Amino acid sequence: MKRMYSLTLMPTDNNSVKILSDTLKKVVLYIYSALAILIHFVRCFDNSFWGDEGLTILAARKNWGDMIEYVAENGHSPLYYAFAWLCVHIFGESGVVYHMSSALAYFIIVLVTAIVVRRCFGYIAAFITVTFCAMLDCAITYNLEVRMYTWCQLFIFLTFITAYMVHKTRMNRYYILLTLFSIGAVYSHYFALASIGIIYLFLLFGSKKDIGKVFLSGGTVIVALVPWLIYAKTISGVIMSNYSISLVPWKDCFEFIFKSKYSFVILSCFVVSVLLAFIYDRKIIDMNKNDKGIAFRFSCVKKNFKLNYEWKWIISGIFAVFGTISAAEIISHTMFPIIVLRYLYVSYIILWLIFGIVISKLKYKRLWAIVLIFAVLSSGVPTYASTLDVEIQQSKRLEATLQATTPKIDEHDFIYTDIIHLAWTVASVYYPKTPHDLFGHAEWREPIELPEFDTSVDYWLFLSSPISDHILDNLHNQNCDAKLVVENGFIGTGSVWIYKVVHTD
User: Fold this and answer.
1) C-beta atoms surrounding 74 within 10 Å
2) How do residues 173-213 score in pLDDT, each as one tens digit?
3) What is the pTM of this model?
4) What is the DSSP letter of 360?
5) What is the 3-state secondary structure (H, E, C) of 12-30?
6) Which of 195, 248, 276, 397 has a CB 3.0–4.6 Å from the CB of 490, allowing a cystine?
């Protein structure tokens, strides 16, 4: 009797095929997420910092008590500054350390999306969210900026996801996490207060049985923030400073949500997708194929419009973002402007996640997801490449500028500049021991007058353009001249021409 042998090359049962397919999708998502992390990790070399980033660097150089006071004086929340301070005191100062202090939050967002969002909402929602977080123009700009925005974004993201679990389960552990993440958000940036507050309001209206837990959680967030607000008011006299910024139009706020070559198109698709997903999910319109073609069934029964916990949560996220925009615009028009687009940016991740979720509810969801991801990548890849090239060129120009000046400029010298950001923080970042002052600004119409020079001090002029005849006349009147040291160099915010003042008498 002959023995019969068989070799099974592939699993044949449906369960095994499903497991294999899920494993393959998980591997692809993890690789995609790793690439999303890697493309921004390689940008951490950059050490060309602009004025706002200079605030972080100057704060991180101080001792703990002075750092906290400095943050309060500048009208900011302290959590990110404390983390940057800790990184610098452990790893020392470098462009990598400073950028990683912000980028780490972005890396965590990608990991949370690949693991938690995938489990809760599926692969399509995870792929879309990772794409938005990595490749929207606004994300490319702020993922590595040495500021608090990515950390505030992370805590708002975690708060919103935890709110979903609260809506779904009402378990105590999620209330605890909701409280902790909310505290992290408001201690990262004051603008988080509006978004977090709206999320809590929807929890309050949607949880009649657990209203006490919602009040306890929200009250804890407020109580935890009050000591800092009192301290900030004591130190600076105000909680949020008026920086005399310009009004930002509503249109700009909306377009910045999906900032890309297709900003308005993607925003429009988001609105349509939410409406379609609600219509299909609540079975207001049911589409089925039959022998005669495609049949539509409309139902306007009251129960079709009744919100389940997921839609209450989705709508709370939409209101959290657009409510923050509205509140900021109203305050800006009635009191003083408080909107800078990057302040609003921190909550936009809520809509990125919602977009992925509602796409996954639509018919032909894979097709829509592919089209959306392709649109974002086709806009983001050129922007990323251009940004990386600019950062490389700026870093090279900065290093050349510093090599030509730092050995020559010491604490006994004095720097005068017409570049506002350089006078504000940037000069202190790169020439920490050298006193400096702003003597004018390139956009001022009035003639720029140099102060009277002390002959015992070596003076330097850091100018935004080649020295003018007017400034030369000022120098000649003091028996001085200007020697060009750096032509079209780069520091912090743009090009710089550096001159050493020499006495001619």
Assistant:
1) 17
2) 999 999 999 999 999 999 999 999 999 999 988 777 789 99
3) 0.91
4) T
5) CCHHHHHHHHHHHHHHHHH
6) 397
